[in-house]
């Protein structure tokens, strides 16, 4: 893929950089842009097509940067706007596109708009938010009983007695997307980043923007008052017009958590978003029947709207998949975090290796969350007093375990991440999972990812079709001469005849494929 390719998002390998935890160059224990620039070679060697950068804007960090105080600048902890511009340029020079993360549902309570709204009831900014009187005689009951996305309540009372809405923490007041100024501001923010050369926008909490102004309660037989309201599509049609005005090569990628695939696909109609994260696949159990159904469901839903599928195994919000796949229950949902349940890391790693080949050969784009290419697992041993995630206080589960800084070199923490104490502790066992330890080791996760991504670049993957190799085997072809086979059964299976192995996720047993192992095959007849 070259930077000239149009529609690059359709089959790109996109790497999520979580800037706090990638690499720290200024020695304060927190990752930064200078660190990313210094370690850009890792991403070039890995062969990724694009970086998605989690928020790097000025923020009080009530939600690790998803509480943005200024969308047109960079938080001093990460660096400066000039450094961000330099990174965009250097990534492009290395053939890597840049996607930035925009958070439209809410802003930080330290954003000038919210401060103005709090300071004066008559301020025009007041209408940019959801201020409402309380219920009850003294107005001291919340306007609704809505449960927040992190659990807990969704309204906070201000000094003047009114309440404001926040679907996440009180430091993240929700914006009123019925207001034209809010819409205009975000279109201008998109242009700000497109003008700086970014190739795509990741849209945070994309389905939540609109709220029913009547504020009904969430009831089974009511339309949902804040999730997936029809009007949200008009917002993204307008965003699409902005993106398209830059020549048709800038992508909008939505974070849309939606159990109903048809509703999900609505976001991907030709005049809306270009792609959205496939959380159905992320949450799916390591189970051949369920995985196959998930792949079918995904491909059908995307085909209906002409959009490319995406394949996502992990991100900064969910338990890392080495850990998930090493548990008895391999599904994921926010209500099923299973903290502290037994984990077989060897099994989880073996499955994660197979999942790498699976997710890199299904039709569409593949997302890699930083550290996944190193086979990192969830750090489940962070002492609670070190937790920084606000979800911990509200939902009893912390996302910090998947946000631990990357191990680069050496035998001991902080493994070259920083010269100081890293903002979250790294497991000592990661000494075998550093970039340095894995480089050149043909059996390492890192070399598996490098080989798979390199092969993917030279393969001309064609039409997808299932290959029937037994009930517990997930196998498919991409055209006549390429096949991926994942053995999800408990016993070795025979590989098809007339093939040669291009890449295997683990050692083969003669000409048989062991359990929890995947291969890419060249079919010869
Ligand atoms: C998204 C982000 C998550 C954040 C939330 C609120 O789900 O991925 O990290 O906490 O939105 O912005």
From TrEMBL:
<dbReference type="InterPro" id="IPR006047">
    <property type="entry name" value="GH13_cat_dom"/>
</dbReference>
<comment type="similarity">
    <text>Belongs to the glycosyl hydrolase 13 family.</text>
</comment>
<dbReference type="InterPro" id="IPR017853">
    <property type="entry name" value="GH"/>
</dbReference>
<feature type="domain" description="Glycosyl hydrolase family 13 catalytic">
    <location>
        <begin position="16"/>
        <end position="403"/>
    </location>
</feature>
<dbReference type="InterPro" id="IPR045857">
    <property type="entry name" value="O16G_dom_2"/>
</dbReference>
<dbReference type="GO" id="GO:0016787">
    <property type="term" value="F:hydrolase activity"/>
</dbReference>
<dbReference type="Pfam" id="PF00128">
    <property type="entry name" value="Alpha-amylase"/>
</dbReference>
<keyword id="KW-0378">Hydrolase</keyword>
<protein>
    <submittedName>
        <fullName>Glycoside hydrolase family 13 protein</fullName>
    </submittedName>
</protein>
């Amino acid at each position: 893929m070259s930077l000239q390719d149009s529609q690059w998002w359709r089959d790109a390998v996109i790497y999520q950089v979580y800037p706090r935890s990638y690499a720290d160059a200024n020695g304060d224990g927190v990752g930064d842009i200078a660190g990313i620039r210094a370690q850009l070679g890792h991403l070039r060697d890995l062969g990724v097509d694009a970086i998605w950068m989690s928020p790097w804007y000025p923020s009080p960090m009530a939600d690790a940067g998803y509480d943005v105080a200024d969308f047109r600048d960079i938080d001093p902890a990460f660096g400066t706007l000039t450094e961000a511009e330099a990174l965009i340029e250097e990534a492009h020079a290395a053939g890597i596109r840049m996607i930035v993360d925009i958070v439209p549902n809410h802003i930080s309570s330290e954003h000038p708009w919210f401060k103005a709204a709090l300071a004066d009831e008559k301020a025009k900014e007041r209408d940019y938010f959801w201020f409402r009187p309380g219920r009850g005689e003294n107005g001291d009951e919340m306007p609704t009983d809505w449960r927040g996305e992190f659990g807990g309540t969704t309204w906070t009372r201000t000094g003047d007695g009114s309440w404001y809405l926040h679907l996440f923490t009180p430091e993240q007041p929700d914006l009123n997307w019925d207001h034209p100024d809010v819409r205009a501001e975000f279109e201008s923010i998109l242009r700000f980043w497109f003008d700086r050369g970014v190739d795509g926008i990741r849209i945070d909490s994309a389905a939540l923007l609109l709220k029913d102004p009547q504020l009904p309660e969430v009831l089974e037989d009511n339309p949902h008052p804040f999730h997936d309201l029809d009007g949200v599509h008009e917002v993204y049609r307008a965003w699409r017009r902005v993106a398209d005005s830059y020549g048709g090569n800038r992508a909008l990628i939505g974070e849309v958590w939606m159990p109903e695939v048809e509703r999900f696909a609505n976001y991907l109609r030709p005049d809306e978003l270009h792609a959205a994260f496939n959380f159905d696949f992320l949450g799916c159990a390591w189970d051949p029947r369920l995985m196959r159904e998930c792949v079918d469901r995904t491909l059908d839903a995307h085909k209906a709207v002409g959009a490319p599928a995406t394949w996502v195994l992990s991100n900064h919000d969910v338990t890392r998949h080495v850990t998930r796949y090493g548990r008895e229950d391999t599904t994921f949902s926010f209500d099923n975090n299973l903290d502290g349940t037994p984990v077989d890391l060897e099994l989880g790693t073996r499955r994660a290796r197979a999942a790498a080949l699976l997710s890199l050969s299904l039709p569409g784009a593949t997302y890699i969350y930083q550290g996944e290419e190193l086979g990192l697992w969830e750090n489940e041993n962070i002492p609670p007093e070190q937790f920084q995630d606000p979800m911990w206080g509200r939902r009893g589960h912390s996302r910090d375990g998947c946000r631990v800084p990357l191990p680069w070199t050496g035998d001991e923490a902080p493994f070259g991440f920083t010269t100081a104490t890293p903002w979250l502790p790294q497991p000592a066992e990661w000494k075998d999972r550093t970039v340095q330890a894995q480089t050149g080791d043909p059996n390492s996760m890192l070399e598996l990812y490098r080989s798979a991504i390199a092969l993917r670049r030279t393969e001309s993957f064609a039409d997808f079709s299932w290959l029937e190799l037994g009930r517990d085997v997930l196998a498919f072809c991409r055209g006549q001469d390429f096949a991926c086979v994942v053995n999800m059964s408990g016993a070795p299976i025979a590989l098809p005849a007339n093939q040669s192995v291009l890449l295997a996720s683990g050692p083969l047993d003669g000409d048989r494929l062991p359990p929890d192992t995947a291969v890419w095959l060249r079919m010869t007849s």
